[in-house]
């Protein structure tokens, strides 16, 4: 089986390697010609020459590049060909894009991909949405990418279901990370447990909370016992936000996931406007001292109004 | 009626003035002799000479000073005399202290006091706990302190009930302040509403959210439109913590009050250990760049393990 | 000045009365002919005959009816005429609707209205978005509706700003209500404070948490001391959801408002699917007894796997 | 090596079996004589006859039984003997108990035990607090109980550190379970993902969120696809509460763990007093219909005041 693969960054590059390792043919395209197998998208499509299968193109590009790539692919592909979006797309965009391509008879599959830098070695978990027959056609590719064993792949439903499942996966991920993070902070603050990294390490077997994220937390603590070398600054890539928004759409309470998202927002603020308001109100009613913005150590005298 | 008043700081000093303004006799004591009416506690008690009432002493001192003062008063007072704790005591301490004094037949009343720097002029809201007859005896003092009109005083129950009511009052206060603070931050961030102070000001009549705290928020915004001069740093004085702890004791969910308390904790951190852990885990699984602790603008390159 | 007023329900009907009370001319239209001043929208517009002002139509209809009404008004009105949407619209819809009407030269103003059933007597708080000159033209109407005194009206910014300000107002409202609600539940659960309604009543003067919502809470407690006659079931009308979504768009942490929204979601569930999952996992790892869905009192025996 | 083991319930009974399986001698005592190796505590201690070691007694009883057992053991044991509390004790109690026993020269070790019904087969994770030499003496017992391999045991620090570590472990556990639970509820509500159990199953390899709790969640879903047979009712065993309280003591924000705890509290309420208050206030200001307590489907008519 052969496929085109658009985007050969950290994820796409490793995926090309893993698919090739399984014996499939990959024609990769990237704007970086040093790593690209084709000069442009047209060249890539032209090099897909198998006559016993539809042309298949896996798109693995940043969110903002997906629509331009799909627009161009719509011109280059033909009825019956298949496009897979493996990026971090919002599931609502999948439905729109699927309809766009369907005007030319091109099939669309959305595929949420998890695994990060470990995927090349361990395999990528795949959550796919699309029609049964199309998913069936693509199984050799999914099998090449997914981990060995019985887990790591699900055909979650129609178009959009793959990215929806991946979105929920990431929402869950936010809250699990927050759980370990809160536990870490409490252990560090209490100073009763004398060896926090060893405690996390001990939890890796026999406990209720053993997990892959725990293993990673232990790796990080072994490198930097108190995480002194790292700032408490966490980006978010969209899925956490979409999870909370989807929950709101369906009136589902998600307090732990929302708390995790808000903690990331707060981590990126130099100062909190909300807490400025709290400090200002406290000063107004109680004459509580406030700290001036300029000098962190300077407390303005209580002001009575 | 006459009373001794121990502690003439920001609260106690104003309370002395308000009680005297109502025609009662106050013998105040403070370690600062410039403002004290007595040289020590014994002198203060000695100056309580009314023969038609028990000796009454109102204690208005910082939390850590209450027990020493009560211990000394237990020596100086006699059976039937009354001690009122008007400080920010935890209600569980009231019960202990009441028992201590009862060994000598001294009566104890706990009184939560709200009003801050505005109390001298507007009156202090009082939440009292103690026996009916003792509260009855003290009503001239409470009447002097409380606001005019029908509100501002409650005999909440037995000893401890006053500080419990005050504790819950403050827990509610935390969450109301957080409500306005979150609204403020959102209005500032969205930049759609062009005049945030005017918007808050408009809410002072006709809306569902009009309140005294809103008035104070408007005062603060009129002085400093974007609160540029103030840091987002908020202390907590104990009652918020006790409220959440009491809620946990009674299995009562208090998500908004707890969120408000945690926001204050976070406001006082230079960096968040929990978010360091989040950043460390993200780096481990995704090769996500982390920010170094030293230089806020420096992002270490993705590390693959 | 004269205006058309579409929608004479609980809000619109009272607003007609208040505007007329201020001496303005109102031609109201409602599908309920018993209360309508016109047979249909065309009739209503036809009855606007003042020659010294543009035609002005205030739309006060349920959210789902706004677009059909605006579409019909676009046919009936002319260049320079003005439409005001006073409903609970999402601010993003304002911008779309404003553009629609602008094709015919019709001006659009969005106006968030607060006040509920008390507005007829006390006045309605108004938060408006639109061009300066249009707002200026409409001031006699706003002045008729708003409370007396200096507060209760703001020209918040361009089109959309009015409903955005109202949305944030409601988000704040959710969290303030949650604050009192959590305090009420704790006081009821602890049973230390012997008279909860009196305690709330006492807070109405001199305290930091005095507010109009507190007054209403007291009213409710006076009618039904323990709220025995009411179910813990709370709808939400959209603004709370939009507030959290807007906060997410701007990366603003809103933990208290989100907690309040989630509490409402949970209040409407017969049983919590999330807590079923918690119970199921606990049973799996600890052999903790679970309760069967059929019989609330039936605990299935621990199951070991 | 030999030890006495007090309490042969679900945990203690399995632990006796596992320790014996490792070749150590266990004299178990339980009030249930059918499973007990001794008639009473004195008999149990009398049967500890090894002369080359101090007497060692592991206490594995419900929380309320620990103090009576320790009091009796204090009479039966001698200087240099060792008592281990393996129950779900609060770490602050450890310190008190250790001091009590130290008056007779008896050594105390606290040991948090995780593993539930799976521990017999997989081993128990152990988190211990106590002096180095005592822990060293006890290592053969710990080695018998813990999982094979390098993980599952930590000497966390002085007395109290073991239960503190276990407490934090459980706090983390609460939030991780809540994470999966929220994801489950959202997937069920959205109905986009057509096979929720398969989706959870797929996550067991290659994803960021793979864990032992996920495996258990899959087990539960395979038995009962929509968890129809189980009620959304979750007890809590204390550690979650203590974690939040410890966090409050140290001013550590724990929003996700607290949210998880509050969700459990709410799951046990027939109706929410807080949401009654919300409904009551909404009715007061907006004439919003409320639901009567008696008949869930009955909405009282709007009331205007």
TrEMBL record, chains A, B, C, D:
It holds the Pfam family 6PGD. GO terms for molecular function: NADP binding; phosphogluconate dehydrogenase (decarboxylating) activity. Residues 162-289 form the 6-phosphogluconate dehydrogenase C-terminal domain. The keyword Oxidoreductase applies. Keywords: Gluconate utilization, Oxidoreductase. It comes from the Bacteria. InterPro entries: 6-PGluconate_DH-like_C_sf, 6DGDH_YqeC, 6PGD_dom2, 6PGDH_C, 6PGDH_NADP-bd, NAD(P)-bd_dom_sf, Pgluconate_DH. One of its GO terms (biological process) is D-gluconate metabolic process. Belongs to the 6-phosphogluconate dehydrogenase family. This is 6-phosphogluconate dehydrogenase (Decarboxylating). It comes from Kribbella voronezhensis.
């Amino acid at each position: 089986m052969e496929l085109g693969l658009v985007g050969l960054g950290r994820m796409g590059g490793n995926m090309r390697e893993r698919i090739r390792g399984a014996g499939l043919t990959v024609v990769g395209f990237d704007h970086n010609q040093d790593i690209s197998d084709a000069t442009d998208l047209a060249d890539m499509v032209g090099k897909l020459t198998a006559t016993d299968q539809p042309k298949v193109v896996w798109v693995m590009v940043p969110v903002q590049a997906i629509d331009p790539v799909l627009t161009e692919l719509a011109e280059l592909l033909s009825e019956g060909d298949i496009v897979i979006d493996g990026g971090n797309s919002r599931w609502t965009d999948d439905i729109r894009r699927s309809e766009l391509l369907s005007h030319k008879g091109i099939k669309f599959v959305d595929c949420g991909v998890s695994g990060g830098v470990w995927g090349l070695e361990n395999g990528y978990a795949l959550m796919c949405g699309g029609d049964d027959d199309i998913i069936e056609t693509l199984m050799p590719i999914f099998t090449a990418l997914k981990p060995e064993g019985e887990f790591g792949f699900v055909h979650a439903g129609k178009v959009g279901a793959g990215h929806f499942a991946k979105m929920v996966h990431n929402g869950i991920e936010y809250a699990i990370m927050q759980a370990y993070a809160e536990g870490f902070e409490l252990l560090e603050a209490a100073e009763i447990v004398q060896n926090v990294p060893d405690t996390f390490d001990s939890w890796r077997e026999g406990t209720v909370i053993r997990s892959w994220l725990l293993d990673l937390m232990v790796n990080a603590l072994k490198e930097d016992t108190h995480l002194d070398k790292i700032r408490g600054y966490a980006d978010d890539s969209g899925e956490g936000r979409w999870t909370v928004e989807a929950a709101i759409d369906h009136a589902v309470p998600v307090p732990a996931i929302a708390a995790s998202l808000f903690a990331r927002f707060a981590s990126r603020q130099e100062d909190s406007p909300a807490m400025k308001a709290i400090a200002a109100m406290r000063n107004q009613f109680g004459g509580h001292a406030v700290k001036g913005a300029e000098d962190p150590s300077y407390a303005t005298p209580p002001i009575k109004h």
